[in-house]
Amino acid sequence: MKQQALSTVTPWFRLEVEDADWAAEDPADLARWMEQLLLIRRFEEKILDLHGAGLIHGPAHASIGQEAGAVGALSVLGTADKINGTHRAHHQILAKLLNAATAEGYDPRRDEVPQAARDQVRRTMAEIMGLAQGFNGGRGGSMHMRIAEAGVVGSSAIIGGNVPHAVGYGLADKVLGRDDVSVAFFGDGTLMAGQTLEAINLAALYRLPVVFFLENNFYAVSTHVEDQTRETRLTTRGAMLGVPSVECDGMDLLAVRRAMQWARRTIAETGGPVFVEAICYRFLHQSGPLLGSQFGYRDKAEEEAWRARDPLATLPPILERLGVLNAAGMAALEARVRQVVEDAAAALVETAPGANAQQLRPGLLPRVEEIDHGIRGDLSELRGLTVREAPSMSAAATAPKKYIEAIADCLLHNMERDKRIVLIGEDIHRLRGGVSGSSKGVMEKFPERVFATPICENGFTGMALGAALCGLRPVVDIMFGDFTIVAADQMFNGIGKFAHMFGGGFGIPLVVRARVSPAAGYGSQHSMDPSGLFAAYPGWRILHPSTPHDYVGLMNAALACEDPVLMIEHQGLFQTSGQVPVDLDYIVPFGRARLVRPGRACTVLTYGVMVAESEAAVASTGIDAEIIDLRCLDLEGMDWPMIEASIQRTNRVLIAEQTAHGTAHGARWVDEIQARCFDWLDAEIVRISGSRAAPVVSRPLNEAALAGAAKVAEGLRRLMR
C-alpha cells in the first residue's frame, strides 16, 4: 500500500505584523482607532452599570476584550460595505457607526468628537435599553440591531442565523453590479452550526464578495473549543471549502487590519469569499459583569494571561513610541471618551431629587399601543396595478392553460420585467424546468439569475433573506413543502420576525414557493402542506390559489409585494386547466376571496384542491352551500368582509381542508369566526381535514390520511342536521 499526502491549493496561513507595519500607518488614523477602542470599552462598562441598576431589560452581552478585532476589521470597510453580527455585536456596530459618522481626515488629537458620532452612541445605548429613541425603537435591544443607512443590515441572536444573510448581501451586490464587501461576524460556537458551513459553501460556490470573520474567543458560553471540535485549527473550515483563509491575533488591532486588507484584495482578485479567524478572548462571562472563573469553567491564571494582552494596555506604549500620543494625550483622549459615554447616559437616565437610584427619564419608553406596528406593510405598493378577476374576462382575452404551465410562464414573465428577481433552489436549472417543470425556460433565458443550490434549505433560505434586504427580490423554490421545516430557523426566526423586531419601515420582498404533493405516495416526510405553520408568524402572507388564473394574479402581486409571501403550489392541481389572460400583467389582490358558488344553507370555507372536492360534495348531497375559495390564508389577509357577509346569510360554517388535522388552519379560523360572528351562528362550526396522522406510502392509508369530497359531504350532512 502506498500513501500520498494531500494538501490544499487554497491559500491558508497565519499573518503577523512587524514594527514597519505600525510605522506605515497615518498617525491620525492610529489616534482615531485608539479613541474607538476606548469608547467601545467605556460604553460596554456603562452598559453593565445600567444593567446592574435594573435599567436594561434583558441580557447585556459585553464585548470587553474583543474590541481590537472590531476596530481593526471595520477600519477597512466603508459605509456602503455591509455587516451583521450575533448576540455579541456592540463593538462591531459601534465601530461601523463611528466610522460612518466621522469625516475623512478626522484626528481626535485636534478635532472635537462629531455630534453625529455622539448621537450614534446615544441611540445605540437607547436601543440596548429598549427605548423608543433606539435605532429599532427598543425592539431589538442588545442582541438585534439594524441601522441600514450605516451598513448594519441586521444582527441575529440565533447561533449561525446571521451568516447566510451576509451571503445574501454579497449575492445582491454581485447581481446588481455593486463593488461592495459584506462581513459576517461570528464566534467559535457559531462555526459548529450547520447553517454556517452551508453559508460558507454557498458563498464559495457563487464566488461572492463576503468575509466570514470568526472571533475565536475559545468559549461558547462555558464550552471550550476543544470540547466543541476535534480539529481546533478553525481556519480549516474555510480551506476545506476552497475559501482563502487567514488566522491572525485578534488582540492586535493592526494584525486584524492587515488580515482584512488582504481579504479585500483577495476578493477583488478572485471574487471572494474569504475566511478570517481572529484569535481573541472575552474577559467576562457570556453576559453580565462576572468573570468566567467565578462560574468555574475558566481559571484565574488563564484570565490574567489574556488580561496582559488587553489592547487598551498594549496599544498606548506603541503609540507613544511612534510619537502619536504621549501620556497626556492619552489621558485627554480617555477623558473625552468618558464624557461622550456619560453624556449619552445622562440623556436617558436621571436621579430623582432626594433619591440615590437612577431611573429612566420620562417619555423614553415605546408606546405599548404600537406593539403590533411594523409586522408587515400596508400593500400600498400594489395600488395602481391592474386587477383582473376571471369572471370579468372576455373569452377573446384569455386562453386555456395548464396550472403547471401558468407557474412557469408567470415566473418567466416576471423575470423579464424585473431584473431584481432571482430564482434560488435545488435542481431548478436542469430536468427541463426543475423536478416539476415549474421553472421551465428560466435557466435558458436568465442563467445569471438562477442559483441552483446544494441541498441546504436553511443556508439558501437565509441567503435569500439577506439578498431581499439588499435590493433583490428572491424566489425560493422548496422542492417539497416538508423541507420548509429544514429551513425553519430562517423561515420563522428570520424572515417571519425581521421586519417587526427591527422596528418596521422596510420591506422583505421575498417569495417562497413550496410544492405540496400529499397524494403522490411520497410518504410522511414529503407530503405536508406547511402553510399552517407559517400562519403562526404574522409577517408571512400565505397564498394557495386553486386556478391557473388566480395563480398568475396572486404570484404577480407577490412579486410586487414588499412583504414575504409563501406560495403553496399543489401538485394535485398541476395538470388541471383554466382560462388565463393572454396579457399576464395583472394581479389578484391579497385579501380578496373568490365566490365559487352562492348558496343559502351554509358557508363552506376552503382553498386549493378542496375547492373542486367541495363542489363535488355539494353536488352529491344537494345541499345549497355557498362555497368560498379563500385564496389568501393568513389570518390578517383573509377576506373577512366576504366571509362575515356569507355567514350572516347562511348562519352555518364548514371549513374544508385536505391536510392533516394538526397542521391545518381550521382551529385558528374557528377562533376568529367565533369572535367575529358568534351572534350569527346557529350551529357549531364543522371542521373537515385530514387524519391526525401524516400521509404515508401505502395507497389506501395515504388516501385515508387526506380529506376529500366524501368527508366534506359527511360534514355537510352533519352541519345541516
Describe the model.
- With about 725 residues, the protein is of the alpha/beta class.
- It has 3 domains: about 10-365, Thiamin diphosphate (ThDP)-binding fold, Pyr/PP domains (Rossmann fold), CATH 3.40.50; about 380-580, Thiamin diphosphate (ThDP)-binding fold, Pyr/PP domains (Rossmann fold), CATH 3.40.50; about 595-720, Rossmann fold (3-Layer(aba) Sandwich), CATH 3.40.50.
- It is about 40% helix and about 15% strand.
- The protein has 25 helices and 23 strands.
- The strands form 6 sheets. Strands 1-7-8-4-3-2 form a 6-stranded parallel beta sheet, sandwiched between helices.
- A hairpin with a 6-residue loop joins strand 9 and strand 10.
- Helix 5 packs across helix 13.
- The chain starts with 11 loop residues before the first strand and ends with a helix.
- The mean pLDDT is about 95.
Summarize this structure as a short list of keywords or feature phrases:
about 725 residues, alpha/beta, Rossmann fold, 3 domains, six-stranded parallel sheet, 25 helices, 23 strands, about 15% strand, elongated
